[in-house]
Amino acid sequence: MSAIIGIDPGLKGGVAFYVDGEMAADPLEIIENTKGKKCVDVCALMSIIRIMRLAPTKNIPDFRVYIESPFTRIGERTKGALNSGIEYGRILGAFQSIGITPIEVKPQTWQKFLYRGIPGKGKERSIIACRRLYPHIDLFPGKKRVAHDGMADAVLICEYGRLRENAKQENVISGKND
Known about the structure:
By secondary structure, the chain is of the alpha/beta class. The protein contains 5 helices and 7 strands.
């Protein structure tokens, strides 16, 4: 059995899990570091991974982690891009410390496949696409009044990973090369 994990690594990011044909998602936990700045709680994220690995009912030895690689948007401030890169690096390092090398995916790559036929602009498209694919996922965690676009992105990154892994498996079964 394997699990696919999709991560939108920002401070407003999310994490999605695809296991046994089921998709689930959560916002990334945010804490304050010793300097009082907000950052992703990588310990909480790794705790979830450890629980999934050790859960006697699941016993999931094989993980594929897909993480959105950072990019700089036109007009984005340097400080914002730097902070985004720092969070990305912390998450990559945490996974690598437990022997999992995440697969980095550019936003344009997963969006090209999953935004087909989806109206709207930007994050709005992610929310619409997520709702179409997985209507059971609650994009309003806690007391949020607006849909959590980081969770929607994480679900779509995870779905991209699932589609990619299935395509690889079909190529192996049919004898085609990757």
